[in-house]
Amino acid sequence: MALSENIKKRRIKLKMSQEYIADQLGISRQAVAKWENGKSEPSAANLAELAAVLETSVSDLVEIRQTNEEIQKKDKIKQRYHNSKMLAGRFIAVCLVNAGWDGYSSGLYVKLPLYWLALLGIGIILMFITSIDMNKKHQMDKIQIMTGSIMIISIFFLPRMLPFHEKGMNYFLSDIVTAICVIYLDLKYWRYIWKIK
Predict the structure, then answer these.
(1) What are phi and psi of 18, to 5 degrees?
(2) pLDDT: is 111 or 6 the higher one?
């Protein structure tokens, strides 16, 4: 609450009239009314005397207290921001794990194996962080576990299981399966676990 609200609330709590406050401070009742309406503020000297009359401290009068609604609104904003980071982190994690493993295991990019392993490592760390947060908010069901398992299999094992002789085709098809799993998990679970609206 603002200073004006604090003054009014304290005066009403002590069952004092504006006239009484004005008499104690040697000012007009209109001046007190203006303070309570937020149209003006007391001088430093008046504020010290006002605090004494209202049996409180100057710091308590000028302290801005947040209402429950303001606190809840800020909490919602913080939660949305956290959720958006987790949701984005989950997508980025899957992309990094997929790209890192494809780049490393395919042998198509032999000159940069450490680069692909670094991407894979960052993706696994992000996956771990977002999984911890997900477990705090949500109990996984069988379909979610199964879809997640298919996604992991499609990233790490499917390219070698497919019968095509063309490596690029095997990785392309496994990436499609991964994308389908990610879209399903997002539509069915992730966007509801990490609500951003």
Answers:
(1) -65, -35
(2) 6
Residue type, 46: N
Count of other CB atoms within 10 angstroms of residue 101: 21
The predicted-structure confidence for 57-109, as pLDDT tens digits, reads as follows 888 878 765 566 777 888 889 999 999 999 999 999 999 999 999 888 887 66
Q: What are phi and psi of 42, to 5 degrees?
A: -70, 150
> Distance between CA 132 and CA 128 in Å, rounded?
6
Residue position matching structure tokens 């309570």: 36
Q: What secondary structure does DSSP assign to 52-89, as a single string?
A: HHTTS-HHHHH--PPPHHHHHHHHHHHHHHHHHHHHHH
Pair 38, 6: CB distance under 8 Å: no
pTM over 0.85: no
CB 41 within 8 A of CB 26: no
Structure tokens at 45: 């000297």
